[in-house]
Specification:
single chain; 161 residues; alpha+beta; four-stranded mixed β-sheet; three-stranded antiparallel β-sheet; globular
Length: 161
Amino acid sequence: MLEGLLSKEECAHCRLCCSFDSYGLWDTPVITPGMKEKVLRAKPGQRFVSRGDTLLLRMEREEQEDLYYCPLLDRSRGCIMGDGKPFDCRIWPFRVMNFLGRRVITLSPLCPAVAEKPVEQIRKKCGEIAPAVFKEAREHPEYVRAYEEGFPIFAADTEEE
């Protein structure tokens, strides 16, 4: 989905989006019932954590570190889900958030590869993916996170939540 903005090589080198500290575990990808079945086919025995009406991947803490890696990450090959990644992963470093009652696409300030890109290139890619991203977010409101200060807004949905 992010071809033309991030290369597979840039993402494979970094993998920041596949790791979480204990303060960021709330930010792990939302897993829908359909995605749960795909995950279990790719990784039988994977466990999940309930968060309200949604599921998150259960992550195990790295020994002697406050760091959790996504259980779908094969550290030598990347994501075992390939192009079938969860929504949050497919659109990273973009995020869908609720800003004053409207879905918006924001950009995570954490992605080092995107931080090096010209803002016009980021804006162009956001414009290309926005219709599909907003459509999926409308169908799955659980994907929409509360707005966080420091995440610049790149697009707003024309339909209200």
